[in-house]
Design brief:
single chain; 391 residues; TIM Barrel; Enolase-like, domain 1; 13 helices; 22% strand
């Protein structure tokens, strides 16, 4: 059975759509049903009798093979991407040889005999989807086989026959830390493997979960793009594993970082997000969208020095979107009694609202409840150093 993604079928059928951006790749799903039950995928519940299935946000509808091939000949598509349910690999290869376009074949499990048959087919890219960023996440969401898939990716990426023709998919928002995602992306980048980054969209057994926070996804887009050029780039992370956009990193950010990533000629409009909130831009960013995307990254690290009666040094990280103080470190030549009150204050202020009145109220309460005192600085000095004199 062959099904096409909604946008791909609409283009081939000559239908008008309301979409601002049309897909540049024809996405084709091969096979009747998926034998796996990944908790983040609605295709796991598909029936072989269904003419259409949903994957993420996209509806896939059946189409006759001959009709597909005829319409593909004169289409504007730059590439065809064959999403293959396990057990349909030979059918995918048969179809790929009939489509006169660059091809991507996306698989989960890879048969060695099938792979050997692709050695000389230079127009075909092989995508082995990892989805989760490591084995622990894979097990958590029912994906499994992470180690096996990673091993195969390494093997193919290091071979002369497939070097430069290997891709993978990573879904951000399945429960991984940003540091874990960055570590996996760095490993893949060193191998020269193209990464198609996807934002988790609630579906399947995880339909009641929240979509990945836009800030987290933006930071991972930045990390992916930087690592693609420099796999050994050293990122900084906070105590929770969040990527910190320090000055060095911020200088590297370009508008294309926030566009769809993956195989050349693939833009996947609205695959994992609604038009109301774009996660992967399927086109070049318009005026103002780049600044908006940078603001959506949300976490910023700041260092301030405030000179009152004594020297006060504060390092802190703020979440601009959620207006939250993520973490704070307080140092200086002042005194505190008991000494551990500063550490207590740092821990209890983390996660609080990024608001001066709220900060002063909470910090004062911490001192009072612990019968503690500060000498040489005041809570007001701390607030001035973080929020400014007139905030």
């Amino acid at each position: 059975m062959i099904r096409l993604a909604y946008g791909s079928k609409a283009i081939l059928d000559g239908e008008k759509t309301k979409a601002e951006t049309l897909p540049t790749t024809c996405h084709i799903l091969i096979g009747e049903s998926c034998p796996y039950s990944c908790s983040y995928c609605s295709a796991a519940n598909a029936s072989p009798e269904d003419e259409s299935v949903n994957v993420a946000r996209i509806k896939w509808t059946e189409m006759d093979e001959n009709e597909l091939l005829e319409k593909m000949q004169n289409s504007s598509f730059q590439r065809a991407c064959l999403q293959v349910f396990s057990g349909n690999e030979e059918k995918a290869l048969e179809l790929a040889e009939k489509i006169k376009k660059p091809i991507s074949i996306c698989l989960r499990n890879v048969d060695d005999d099938f792979i050997n048959g692709l050695k000389n087919k230079k127009n075909i890219r092989i995508c082995i989807s990892l989805d989760g960023v490591n084995g622990s996440i894979g097990k958590k969401v029912g994906r499994g086989d992470f180690e096996k898939s990673m091993q195969k990716l390494e093997e193919l990426a290091n071979s002369e026959e497939f070097k430069g023709r290997i891709s993978t998919h990573l879904i951000i928002g399945l429960g991984e830390s940003e540091k874990e995602a960055v570590e996996t992306m760095a490993k893949l980048a060193r191998l020269g493997i193209k990464i198609g980054l996807f934002a988790f969209y609630p579906a399947g057994k995880m339909a009641q979960e929240k979509q990945v926070h836009i800030g987290k996804y933006r930071r991972m887009q930045i990390a992916r793009a930087i690592l693609e050029k420099n796999p050994d780039f050293a990122f900084s992370h906070d105590s929770r594993g969040n990527l910190l956009l320090n000055e060095e990193t911020a200088k590297l950010i370009k508008p294309y970082f926030f566009q769809t990533s993956g195989c050349n000629g693939c833009n996947r409009p609205y695959y994992d997000h609604s038009p109301r909130r774009i996660y992967n831009y399927a086109r070049e960013l318009k005026e103002g969208e780049f600044e908006k995307a940078k603001k959506e990254c949300q976490i910023y690290e700041e260092k301030v020095i405030y000179k009152g009666k004594k020297l006060l040094k504060i390092d802190f990280e703020k979440d601009l979107n959620l207006k939250r103080l993520n973490w704070i470190r307080i140092r200086g030549d002042f005194f505190a009694h008991p000494e551990e009150i500063i550490e207590t204050m740092e821990k209890e202020l983390e996660g609080s609202a990024f608001d001066r009145k709220e900060f002063e109220k909470k910090a004062g309460k911490i001192l009072k409840e612990n019968n503690a005192q500060l000498f040489g600085i005041t809570i007001e000095d701390m607030a001035k150093s973080i929020f400014g004199e007139n905030a």
